[in-house]
Design brief:
The chain folds into 2 domains: about 110 residues, Urease, subunit C, domain 1 (Roll), CATH 2.30.40; about 300 residues, Metal-dependent hydrolases (TIM Barrel), CATH 3.20.20.140. Helices cover about 30% and strands about 25% of the residues. It has about 425 residues and is of the alpha/beta class. Strands 1, 2, 3, 4, 5, 16, 17, 18 and 19 form a 9-stranded mixed beta sheet that branches.
């Protein structure tokens, strides 16, 4: 059945289109975009008057916990949570149990997501076997089964030699190597940002340098051996290092997450384990630098680092609690409320960092509203105000520090391959 989205304010950074238009979808593809398209016979019509129409959001960094821990998340629950947040394509990290470090496990994730998933799932394979940082995985064969990139996220690839070989090998296939930048010796035993606040709370801190030293290393390797993408950038110095490297022509990209431009280490007050993430929440100056990096284009993309955890992994002493927070269902609204509304980013730039840019980094044909492309589209009410209630998340885990926050912007419809998966703000699958 054909689907006609009528009268929405379309914003598509890829084609530089911004204006009122109709979008006709037929047989899972976008058929046409123009003014006042006559509705085909028996077409479903969605009235988008007064609403925004964006390409489906693309998340280049998330965790679905499958295989390994269905109590925290499954492909079914995770993709539905993502759909409610406006994500129509997500790339899931390899630090599962067992690790996604073989062609068979990439195939498992890809196949299962096609059966159970509500949206598109792109597996990220491990750089090294078992995330041990010693032996490279079979990248070529894993790409053949559907891997779109490689990362040992959750751990850094400590060996510069191993990381160099990963870059050289990945370069042959034009897929990204995604770096979790962390010096494990500097961060060992730490559970929050190293600062006056960590001293007051009596918690061992993680210094900025734990991230920045590895960012510097990765820039040096990228300069000589291939493209690097640095994920979840959190410090002012890291932003500055990437900015200077780009100015010198180094093949490097990076992303940050909503919690690094909306929260600081002050959120840890009271030993709030929902605010424990890795890298940790930093100081106010770091938050300001992250926003500046998004504004000037140093930071290419906004990812969620959606990291679900069971209640018993969070409701314990801060030092022993797991790191990470869920993020699918709040990411877009946080961007609209905390970046677009104050004027730090234009709406078009914000959409670009959540659609076109992550799709380009992953080298997947997504994040565009264009005739002949997959019909992955979302319809957003930019004025809708709502209060975050973690108990209503579709995710199996509820570990978010945003409970009770009042946000603006709600996804009313999410369309994946021409199929409506979110309707009137509720799951339709």
């Amino acid at each position: 059945m054909d689907l006609l989205i009528r009268g929405g304010q379309v914003i598509d950074p890829a084609t530089n289109f911004e204006g009122m238009a109709d979008i006709l979808i037929s047989e899972s593809k976008i058929k046409s975009i123009s003014q006042k398209i006559p509705p085909p016979k028996n077409a479903t019509i969605l009235d988008a008057g007064g609403l925004y129409v964006f390409p489906g959001l693309v998340d280049l960094h998330c965790h679905l916990r499958d295989p390994g821990d269905p109590e925290e998340e499954t492909i079914a629950s995770g993709t539905r949570s993502a759909a409610l947040g406006g994500f129509t394509s997500i790339a899931c990290m390899a630090n599962t149990d067992p690790v996604i470090d073989s062609p068979a496990l990439v195939k498992y994730v890809k196949s299962k997501s096609q059966i159970e998933g509500a949206i598109n799932v792109f597996p990220i394979g491990a750089v090294t076997k078992g995330l041990k940082g010693e032996e490279l995985t079979e990248m070529g064969r894993m790409i053949g089964e559907g891997a779109v990139g490689f990362s040992d996220d959750g751990k850094p690839v400590v060996s510069a030699e191993v990381f160099r070989r990963a870059l050289e090998y990945a370069r042959q296939f034009d897929v990204p190597v995604i770096s979790h930048a962390e010096d494990l010796e500097l961060s060992a035993g730490g559970s929050m940002n190293e600062s006056f606040k960590s001293t007051i709370l009596g918690l061992k801190g993680i210094p900025h340098q734990a991230e920045e030293i590895m960012v510097m290393r990765d820039i040096m390797l990228a300069r000589a051996f291939g493209k690097v993408h640095i994920t979840h950038v959190s410090t002012a110095r890291s932003v500055d290092l990437v900015r200077k490297a780009k100015a010198e022509g180094v093949a490097i990209t990076c992303d940050t997450c909503p919690h690094y431009f909306t929260l600081t280490e002050e959120e840890v007050e009271g030993y709030n384990t929902y605010a424990k993430v890795n890298p940790p929440l930093r100081g106010e100056k770091d938050l300001e630098a992250i926003i500046a990096g998004l504004k000037d284009g140093t930071i290419d993309a906004i990812s969620t680092d959606h990291a679900p955890h069971r209640a018993e992994e969070k409701n314990i002493e801060f030092g022993y609690a797991a790191s990470g927070m869920v993020g699918f269902e709040t990411a877009l609204a946080l961007v609209l409320t905390e970046l677009v509304e104050p004027g730090s980013l234009t709406l078009k730039k914000a959409v670009e960092k959540m659609t076109l840019n992550p799709a380009r980094i992953l080298n997947v044909k997504k994040g565009v509203i264009k005739a002949g492309w997959d019909a992955d589209v979302i319809i957003v009410d930019p004025k809708a105000e709502w209060t975050v209630d973690i108990n209503r998340f579709a995710s199996r885990s509820k570990n978010s520090p945003y409970h009770g926050w009042k946000l603006k912007g709600r996804v009313l419809y999410a369309i994946v391959g021409g199929k409506i998966v979110v309707k009137d703000g509720q799951l339709a699958v």
